[in-house]
Amino acid sequence: MDIKKTGVAGSETKQDVLVKVEPGLNGIEIKITSSLGMLYYKQIASSVDETASRYGIANALITVVDYGALDFVIRARTESAILRASHEIEKKFYVDKKDVEYKLRRSRLYLPGNNPYLMQGVAYYGADGIILDLEDSVPVEEKDSARILVSYALKNMDFGASERMVRINPIDVCGSEDIESVLQQKPDVILIPKCETEHDVKKIAECLEKNEKRFNLYGYQAKIIPIIESAKGVENAYEIASVSERTVALAFGAEDYTVSLGVRKSKCEEELLFARQSIANGAKAAGVQASDTVYSDIDDLNGLRKSTEKSKMLGFDGRGVIHPSQIEIVHSVFMPSVEEIEEAKEIIEVFNKAKEEGSGVLKHKGKMIDMPVVLRAKRTVSTAKTIHQE
Amino acid sequence: MFSINKVNREIPDKIENRELKPFKGAFSLSPAGKTKHSPRLSVSKPSDDKLCRNLEEALNRANLKDGMTISFHHHLREGDKVVNMVMDEIARMGVKNITVFPTALFAVHEKLIEHIKSGVIARIEGSLNGPIGKFVSHGNMKNVCVLRSHGGRVRAVESGDIKIDIAIVASPSADEYGNCSGLVGKSACGPLAYADIDTRYAENVIVITDNLVKYPLVPHSIPSTRVDSVVSVESIGDPSLIVTGTMRITKSPTRLLIAKYSVDFLDRIGYIKNDITFQTGAGGISLAVTKFMGDRMREKKVKAKFINGGITKFAVDMLKENLTDSLIDVQSFDLDAIKSMSEDSRHFECSVDEYANYFSKGCLVNKLDVGFLGATEVDVDFNVNVNTHTDGLLLHGIGGHQDVAAGCDITMITIPAYRNRLPIILDSVTTVTTPGETVDVVVTEMGVAINPLRKDLVEKAKNIKSIPVMDIREMKEKIEKITGAIERPQKKERVVALIEYRDGTIIDTVREV
Lengths: 390, 513
Prior knowledge:
The structure holds 2 protein chains of 2 kinds. Helix content of chain A is 42%, strand content 17%. Chain A has 13 helices and 14 strands. In chain A, the strands form 3 sheets. Chain A has an 8-stranded parallel beta barrel with strand order 5-6-7-8-9-10-11-12, surrounded by 4 helices. A 4-stranded mixed sheet of chain A has the order 1-2-4-3. Chain A has a two-stranded antiparallel ribbon with strand order 13-14. In chain A, a hairpin with a 6-residue loop joins strand 1 and strand 2. In chain A, helix 1 packs parallel to helix 2 (71-86), helix 2 (71-86) runs antiparallel to helix 3 (143-156) and helix 12 (338-357) packs across helix 13 (371-387). The longest helix of chain A has 20 residues, at 338-357. The radius of gyration of chain A is 24 Å and the shape is elongated. Chain A starts with 6 loop residues before the first strand and ends with a helix. The longest helix of chain B is centred in the middle third of the chain and has 17 residues, at 284-300. Chain B is globular, with a radius of gyration of 23 Å. Chain B starts with a strand and ends with a strand. Classes of the chains: A alpha/beta, B alpha/beta. The A-B interface holds A 14-15, 35-43, 67-71, 120-121, 124-125, 158, 298, 323-325, 389-390 and B 251, 253-254, 256-257, 390-391, 416-417, 419-422, 445-446, 463-466, 482-484, 486-487, 489.
């Protein structure tokens, strides 16, 4: 690959790195300055050199200004700068296995996809899902670089027990480029923003299918969570939730929704009631989970609790969070109550006993129990176990 | 010639005519048979007038001459104007080869570099922060510097290891006879605890104030009996940098998690109970720890016996809420703390001698259940470095680190697993400040590592499942997997500073970078 012009990627912020790739004459020449002095000089040099060699670059001047970036960030930014300097997108192939079974989805934590600093330590926050966002938090001119960073982050970062999620851009913006770029790292879930009709989901599902085949991602299927963020989307909630078998949950985004409704978001959230009910109902009718909107005032933890209690009451299984400090409260609200857990344990006991005795009749406190009730009981108990480890 | 001390560091036998004793263990040395240093006696005649027209007159009365040792205290922190003012005056008077003996220096004192270059300052015995630390690390100071803990500094003064010729007290209020208080005045800073020992042992004491009041100033922290001269100046410091407004708790999720793990851990091992005593500070994680301790104590309906350390609004609120019987204060960080100290008799000023001096008949740190401390690095033997950056540059003073670690029951190091890309846990720290034998628990966002020497804590922690408890080597490897291993810089042979342990032995040396 030839470097024909200058390509720059990254930023001058904590834990990021600014990489500039320019045409050169004397092989690959690398200049490094780092806020950490010489403490990682050799590793930075070899990561940059390796990335450049992988693209078959013979001559280039690469200037690296490091602000304490981790290795995967350095590699991602170098790759972005090279691609920006050469106009080419190279496809790579990685295989990696992780099954998605039944998942708790009480919280989905949004992280800006172009900010390495905010990606630190996510494994320890205990969110059920971590979303690397390529949409609203990434400015248009950084979309290309963010895609590459997110792809590296999916590959290298520890997500702990959290589901790895990516919020892509709408398909008519650059959603398909996003998918092409991140899919090889097998994110568990793709979140589709601004869904208004079933076609928005269908197009993404087709794009996922195409790319899974193209990259030979055998045994892997990306799950989908469509986000409804408009009045029109609310009207089509059930269709949006049911059109693809990949869909595992339907989410709500209230910020844009209030704009489309022509109202302001209020503290009491009354204006969201219809949308919340429609989305919860549409999701449940389609047999998927419902995930409520984020609570944007991170300092008001009491408000968060009240709002989340309302979400639970309306049928939601979880909600979006924008700061890790919100996770604990959200989880505690979506945590089943002591009575619910006790009842669930009893139901499981009845079920196990009936199984042992070969009896076909399941009765608890005089009521017949069918399989969905047993399943719900099992989920309740496993939820309780996940949260209360002691 | 050199010997290897208890923490495996090479300690030269002698440096600049000083015979060095290698560190032999936290409690191995005894001063038995030795006596305290005794400064000259003074007289006070009714006709004496202590008030000087200016600083020059006060320095002349103190017989300022080449080679003297001048001490300072750091209650005015980043806002301090006094250290620079005094050293500029000494330079103007043409005096050279001064040993500066501060309780700590700050970035505002970068100006001292000029005086080092011109030979006015020959040596610094005290913390070497920021720009001065860097300057010294690059070998720009002729003489070797000495760093001591707060308690170790008091010990050095009392034992005569260092003889103070002139002690400078920057006092937010003083009367013409030298009584000093930090509670009132535009530059109010709270206690004057760091200056206490210097005024007891210096040959001459000069008080510099920007709020001169009529005798008697009561209550006062330093009495007129120890003061030779008083100088009134326009301003001793910038009030906005002396104390901060109300400090905000960190929003960093990692740091909040570390604080939460720390409090959870103490709770699980049964330490959060009535009459608990603990020390916290004003750093990012410390404020969160103080707040979370308060929340947990309120929840469990228990009350602390005392809280000490750098005091902030968060500790003051706990006193007001009756979550603690008392606050013991060596340094106030915000206006709430100063106000509380002047209004509430349960908020008590404590000299550094009483706080941390090992060679005394009993200091406060010995009565602490838990000390929450920071670190730049920790190693797999639990040795802690707070003095140097990983590249070897001097960065910070010791503060009370060694003293609190040695005294309290559980020394808890609360730190992020890595800062920028730098891992916090290493095979061997760059500089040993505090020996691992006095450090009990390391808490990062990855979980908790317990010093295997603390078999009791290891046992108590066995059933904890809500916090990951792991071997420190395992934690080190997990961190290194994220950051990559650091490439150690080459250091030169020459020693630029000594790290003294609180008993006066040498725990490590700092070499030129």
